[in-house]
Design a protein that fits this description.
Strand content: 5-15%
Radius of gyration: 35 Å
Structural class: mainly alpha
Distance between the termini: 109 Å
Number of domains: 2
Shape: rod-shaped
Amino acid sequence: MNALRKSAWRDRKKEKEEKDRVEQERVLRELAEKEKQRAFELEKIRLEKEVEIQRKRSEHELTMAQMQDTNGEQDVEPVENGGQGDNHRVGSRSVAMKAMKLPPFNEDKDDLDAYLTRFERACAAFEVRPEHRSMQLARLLQGESLEVYQRLTDSSVEIYDVLKAQLLKRFRLTEKKH
């Protein structure tokens, strides 16, 4: 009888071990499947973000190309450059923006009147069109002066004299306070 009990006990133990092993394999398969699903979701999110970034980049490039077209960069004249005939966009924003190298306006150190005079002389020297001067000046603004520019309406932001007047108004008020 003891031998029969021991045999039955061994059989039950083997059955239990087999059930445990099968259960453990099932749990591992489920974990592997969940990990695959998680990796798939992460890849899907990464690809969606990549597509969104590419879409925004394309939109930006299109906008920039449209801006170049509308800013009159079509007028090209040959310019003599040390015997080398290079074509440059005369009076266009692209040449003037690359050539004009003024430091940004520092409201703590620079006098606004003097800075604007220097800016206007540089614009004249580099043949920056009047309709491009506001944008050119905006590139050089920072701090409170940039805030003045950003507060302008879309229609007035393109007019240099409006931007200049608003800057002078803002910084003259500031000087009187101190």
